[in-house]
Amino acid sequence: xLFVVLPLALAxxxxxxxxxxxxxxxxxxxxxxxxxxxxxxGMFFFGGAATLLVQMMISLSSSHAYVxxxxxxxxxxxxxILGTYAWMLAPNSHLPYExxxxxxxxxxxxxxxxxxxxSGFIVGPILAxxxxxxxxxxxKGTNN
Length: 144
Fold this sequence. Notes:
This protein has 5 helices and no strands. It has helices at 2-26, 33-62, 69-88, 97-116, 123-133.
């Protein structure tokens, strides 16, 4: 159980530290729900990749099945790519409308691919989909 939870917890902690330091450097105080959903989706994708890597290492230490490990490596790389794109596409409120919609469409695509690849502990794809469809002012309580 520790080998599943620890890599995910580390990814979430490290991701939050990076976001905090970036916010402090840029003097940003609050972002939209879409930003947080995309950022946490990325963290869950990274955590899923780390968990898969740890489990593969444990499995390979007791067996010599190196060829099936290639499919696991593919899923790890795919999770890292999805996490990287989710972080890069985290929508910012200062972008023009067209750019925001483009990023949201790409986040919907990431969420769908992540569901198919079973990446991000189900929470990651759900957050990526929410980041793509939720209105900008969701945290403010209005829908205008």
